[in-house]
TrEMBL record:
Gene3D superfamilies, per the entry: Aldolase class I (3.20.20.70)
Catalysed reactions, as listed in the record: (1S,2R)-1-C-(indol-3-yl)glycerol 3-phosphate + L-serine = D-glyceraldehyde 3-phosphate + L-tryptophan + H2O
Chain's gene name: trpA
InterPro entries given in the database record: Aldolase_TIM, RibuloseP-bd_barrel, Trp_synthase_alpha_AS, Trp_synthase_suA
Enzyme class: lyase
Species whose genome carries this gene: Megasphaera vaginalis
Highest taxon in the source lineage: Bacteria
Name of the featured protein: Tryptophan synthase alpha chain
EC number(s) stated in the UniProt entry for this protein: 4.2.1.20
Amino acid sequence: MSKIGNAFKSGKAFIPYLTAGDPSVEKSCKFILEMERAGADLVEIGIPFSDPIAEGPVIQAANIRALSVHTDLGQVFRLVRMVREKSQIPLVFLTYVNPIFRYGAESFFSACADVGVDGVIVPDMPYEERGECATAAAAYGIDIISMIAPTSRERIKTIASVGSGFLYVVSSLGVTGMRSDIKTGIDDMIKTIRNVTDVPAAVGFGINTPEQATALAKLADGVIVGSAVVRIIAVHGEAAGPYLYEYVRSMKEAVLRA
């Protein structure tokens, strides 16, 4: 079992996301540690990118803020080193294909292993084109986290069968962002996944309230929240730490009620 599996060993996992370098690499490190203290089991770190096609306006704005202070891949790797000086919480990058191939797939995954990244999510990488990344990632012990969207049952089975670390189950069609109602048939998706793998499945996209977290944690192994966390950082900036702590604590408690 990879270190990512540890996030799910003690029950339902809560997984927050933030964009590296928003508002600074140093503050991102502090925010990650604060969210761990509040109960986060794993943290997704977004690598800033100029064209984040899967993201809604909240995370797009965070990418712009991070890029405006020159948060490049070198700075993101530095962030992970800083976190690893104080914590062994599982860490997963969320990035697009372009930064990986500009850096070089072999070099990228080697650097991930060197600094202590446990997995990588690539939302714009089709299943059919995952080969080069998957080979390089496997060589360095990095999990490629497969994203499973509401789609045909056979395609869900195909994607789930090669998943490692955990499976990112997309709760809603469209881009990321907070939603008041999530109507996708998550239960059926999870049942389909369970027919082909026992890799943990966590649900993301649109989740922002404790009530949603409890409801979805009853169906899945974990809950992922991005836009709501990033909005707290957008509103409070460098002073966001205590607000992140309270929000993550409330969401972790909600997940544990499932």
